Amino acid sequence: MTLKFNRNQLRAYFVCGTQDVPGANLETVVQSALDAGITAYQYRDKGTSQLTPNERLALGRQLHQRCAAANVPFIVDDDVELALALNADGIHVGQKDDRVTTVLQRVAGQMFVGLSCSTLAEVAIANQIRGIAYIGSGPIFPTTSKADADPVVGLAGLKQLVARSQRPIVAIGGITESQLRPVAATGVAGSAVISMIARSTDMPRTVGAMLTATAFQS
Ligand SMILES: Cc1ncc(COP(=O)(O)OP(=O)(O)O)c(N)n1
Ligand SMILES: Cc1ncsc1CCOP(=O)(O)O
Ligand SMILES: [Mg+2]
């Protein structure tokens, strides 16, 4: 049985793959983040990842087990067949991935679906599609973690997207601890980050700051 979506899962959303933690063990990093209190984990293994498809599947099984033990949703990025093979709790797709309507039909209610929207036009279209659980919007600030990132949205742009969206929005892209409160003040349900957690020297403090910033959002 997969975990059902609720917007509080977006409060401290960790996105990470092997490419983001060179020289480290992704399982160890994710377990530390779970112990620190993340509310969602997205398995986004791509780009310079050196894993074979079978290795990616095997690692995904291990990561899902760790998330399940912590009652934290395990979300797969992009790859519908991998998400189904892992019985993931959710999948996240972007505007350049499989069409979200196709993904919704393919997963047929087996998992929740998140969609990337970085413009008002994309949000308006998403509002018309039944079944989308949440929206990921960004990059809010410049990022070095995604080579093909869209233009920077900024806090003012994010506020406009929140006002237009009928689904909860999680902000992503270049978010640092000093920006958590200004990001939360736009009305988003939370922040999704790679570097801020993956490179943290004090994960309990970092994740705690994410949770504190969104403490009174729900
Ligand atoms: C929570 C969240 N928001 C946005 C993204 C970006 O997705 P996408 O635009 O498909 O880009 P890639 O991550 O696939 O490079 C995300 N992954 N998660
Ligand atoms: C996956 C993704 N989508 C938009 S920006 C981004 C990268 C976020 O990484 P970081 O938190 O290190 O900027
Ligand atoms: Mg994608």
TrEMBL record:
Binding positions for 2-[(2R,5Z)-2-carboxy-4-methylthiazol-5(2H)-ylidene]ethyl phosphate per the UniProt entry: T143, T144, S145, G174, I194, S195
UniProt catalytic activity: 2-(2-carboxy-4-methylthiazol-5-yl)ethyl phosphate + 4-amino-2-methyl-5-(diphosphooxymethyl)pyrimidine + 2 H(+) = thiamine phosphate + CO2 + diphosphate; 4-methyl-5-(2-phosphooxyethyl)-thiazole + 4-amino-2-methyl-5-(diphosphooxymethyl)pyrimidine + H(+) = thiamine phosphate + diphosphate; 2-[(2R,5Z)-2-carboxy-4-methylthiazol-5(2H)-ylidene]ethyl phosphate + 4-amino-2-methyl-5-(diphosphooxymethyl)pyrimidine + 2 H(+) = thiamine phosphate + CO2 + diphosphate
CDD domains, per the entry: TMP_TenI
Record: residues binding Mg(2+): D78, D97
One Pfam family of this chain: TMP-TENI
Entry EC number(s): 2.5.1.3
Record text on cofactor binding: Binds 1 Mg(2+) ion per subunit.
UniProtKB keywords: Magnesium, Metal-binding, Thiamine biosynthesis, Transferase
Entry annotated with the keyword Transmembrane: no
Pathway(s) this gene product operates in, as recorded in its UniProt entry: Cofactor biosynthesis; thiamine diphosphate biosynthesis; thiamine phosphate from 4-amino-2-methyl-5-diphosphomethylpyrimidine and 4-methyl-5-(2-phosphoethyl)-thiazole: step 1/1
Domain Thiamine phosphate synthase/TenI: 13-197
GO (cellular component) term, any one: cytoplasm
Cofactor(s) essential for the protein: Mg(2+)
Biological function: Condenses 4-methyl-5-(beta-hydroxyethyl)thiazole monophosphate (THZ-P) and 2-methyl-4-amino-5-hydroxymethyl pyrimidine pyrophosphate (HMP-PP) to form thiamine monophosphate (TMP).
Family: Belongs to the thiamine-phosphate synthase family.
The name this protein goes by in its record: Thiamine-phosphate synthase
